[in-house]
């Protein structure tokens, strides 16, 4: 029995370290570039203003402080997005929609299961985290966090910086941004997020000739390219001395990004 249990743990661990591939869900490719309407993200911005705490190297979330009204407003925001057909909006408006929805759903998942030490504790016995759980329905399509990130955002926009703006509620993750995404500020926030992460020790930590990188660069190496391409990408945002990727190791901290 002990051997079987050990094998199951190894299976779960292996599943957690295998990043999903970007596989397009064609249904979500449609857009209406003639539509100049915008989607209101003020409820999400209100949540960020009230509960997100900014530190020099990390943004943390005050999950313990979220009131019943705060939970209601977050749920109202998510339900509003779920009732919106993003395909009827422009591509820029859609990008902000999906990023904000992903991050809001992640926060809601933590709140629904709080207290906990790590998002990886959620999901079924054979799951490493909740990313495959169907969390909401849009246009009669049930979606999970993995659907949003790997079947919509990554394959449609094909921008490696997406990894810097979808937050997994963990200390090792790129920071949850204090601004809600909009069609107008997405490019600024993408650049800001990339720079902040790459210049943090959780993104890139240099010790002599050794470089400790976030596991994101290992899991999603297909998005960042070969070693030379990744090095160029990092140095595009690095402040100070450029990094040389000669001796690389990877790490990731799954501890909850909680502010006490």
From TrEMBL:
<feature type="domain" description="DUF547">
    <location>
        <begin position="87"/>
        <end position="198"/>
    </location>
</feature>
<feature type="signal peptide">
    <location>
        <begin position="1"/>
        <end position="18"/>
    </location>
</feature>
<dbReference type="InterPro" id="IPR006869">
    <property type="entry name" value="DUF547"/>
</dbReference>
<dbReference type="Pfam" id="PF04784">
    <property type="entry name" value="DUF547"/>
</dbReference>
<keyword id="KW-0732">Signal</keyword>
<protein>
    <submittedName>
        <fullName>DUF547 domain-containing protein</fullName>
    </submittedName>
</protein>
